[in-house]
Design goal:
alpha+beta, 3-stranded antiparallel sheet, 4 helices
């Protein structure tokens, strides 16, 4: 069951300029993300995805609490590590897209509904 939706759009040039500031990447990307994400459009995509996640979740989570890494097929997958987020009952799905000048992302928060097996 969908319980939250978030969307964000960011200009890649804005992120490219921010990347020139010392500590910017360390503040918004986890150490593992920094191994995969090096180009401004990739950083902008992660920025947009994390912003979309914050909007969908509606909880106090920080930049380092959200990690977006590619799965075995290269699809970006989000993991939230926060005491405010119930990973047993909630799941987050994301989609990131890039255009020449912008990056955008959508996040969908689902609540997992368990049903007892039929007798």
């Amino acid at each position: 069951m969908v319980v939250g939706v978030g969307i964000d759009l960011v200009e890649i040039k804005r992120i490219e300029k921010a990347m020139e500031r010392p500590g910017f990447l360390e503040r918004i990307l986890t150490p593992l993300e920094r191994e995969f994400v090096v180009k401004p459009n990739q950083v902008a995509g992660r920025w947009a995805a994390k912003e979309a996640i914050y909007k969908a979740v509606g909880l106090p989570i920080g930049w380092q609490d959200v990690e977006i890494l590619p799965n075995e097929l290269g699809i970006p997958t989000a993991r939230i590590d926060s005491p405010h987020f119930d990973t047993g009952r909630l799941r987050i799905k994301i989609s990131i897209t890039h255009e020449r000048t912008h990056a955008a992302a959508v996040a969908i928060l689902e609540r997992i509904i368990y049903q007892a097996p039929a007798l």
